[in-house]
From TrEMBL:
Keywords: Membrane, Transmembrane, Transmembrane helix. It is a multi-pass membrane protein. This is MAPEG family protein. GO terms for cellular component: membrane. The keyword Aminoacyl-tRNA synthetase does not apply.
Amino acid sequence: MASLPLTALVTVLSLLLYFVLTINVGRARAKYGVPVPQMSGDPNFERVVRVQQNTLEQLILFLPLLWIFSLYVSPLIGAILGGIWIVGRILYAWGYYQAAEKRGPGFAIASLSAMVLLGWSLVQLLVMTVTTAW
């Protein structure tokens, strides 16, 4: 339990990242002249919106996995994997802002981190369920 503050810190940092990405959408609206509520226009604006929307979609998977992993497997390893996820999402955004083709490495890093959180959590919970049922 002593390492759960690290999990909480990773949670706050992931939400801070999302907040910054949301601000970037507003900045891109002004820069590329895309009025609210319009969601399309300049391709540069659309990439900024996709980064923000895709990160929101990924947060729905990432945050519960981060906490389940941290509570049932290891808070320290969970925080490390969560930090890797954040780095991956930053690289994803940075690459995607430049060109859609450059988003791959960041997507791969974040996805791999989420898959490890998912797989390891699932195995741990299955083992716990089976051993307590006997």
